[in-house]
Amino acid sequence: MSRIGVIGGGIAGCTVASELADAGEDVVLLEKEDELGGNIKNYGCKATDSCTKCNLCLVDSIFNSVRESDRIEVRENTAVLDCLEKEGFGLVVEDDDGEYTLDDISEIVLATGHKRWSELETGTPEIFEDERILWASDFEDMLEGRKDQLCEESLEMNLGFSPDSAVFLQCNGSRSIQEKARYCSKVCCGYNYRIAQVLRHNFPEMDLSMFFIDMQEAGFLVNLSFEKLSELDIDYYNCKPLRLESSSDSLQLNYEDQKEGKMEKLDTDLLVLSEGIHRGTEHEHWSKIFNLQQTEDGFLRPIWPGEETGVYLAGTVTGPGDSATTIAKSRETAYRLLDNKLVEKAN
Description:
alpha/beta; FAD/NAD(P)-binding domain; seven-stranded mixed sheet; five-stranded parallel sheet; 8 helices; 26% helix; oxidoreductase; FAD/NAD-bd_sf
């Protein structure tokens, strides 16, 4: 009896596996880490006194459906080394017991996601040694589980100081020719906006500012706009700082006021950097063993309807996207695979 192999146990892979299992298909889900979750397991809900529509409430139910399904076999700590073409596919894998081949795979869904820019060694300047400069993911670790109790004392405990001001800087690791990432990551604006909401809710007097190139959608249902920033009393600057200076008193961002045509300076106690989405470090490997093409940015080129050879792609393996978009497109991948199986049976 054959089954479908899903590679990657993040939100995309688990969404596909859950949909396939619900349709009566047997699935083996292969995750190289020691637990399911992928990138999204590092993030938490940022609701304050109202929902911020981060869509993370959708995630737990998807992971639970995978764990509870009798049709899904989950293999963690399992790396895919190669693919052998036969009648179907043979996946050469390696886990704690050694190397072996899964030779009962009828179709493959590749859903291995992306890397955050902070996870890459390239391009990280020495300024990140300053405790007042944080990646958004570092701030996430501090906020997780403490949103309702976040106060000046807890902020000082985690940061080592109590900031009176914070600046959010977008487009780090994307919109960059130097980093070969000219695209928009589609997550930075909404993500930092939600963190800013948490700070504004808990610290009404804190000065908050945001630098950006342009505004993207802050989620599947919420549009981030100048009006929303103004409602939260967030100052916004439509540019990227040209220079950052550090002193014992504060961080100083030098930027060009495009309306006035002159250089200005903004002092802040805390700088929070958004993190762009980068291609996964294994994309070249997948391209080789599955005979896939890559885009100029290094992601895997989408496989369009009619091009399928038994291999399907899901999630951010093909390019940036937020959680809601990833879930929706992963469901679409599962439905397309199921449709193709029905057509194959009919023929």
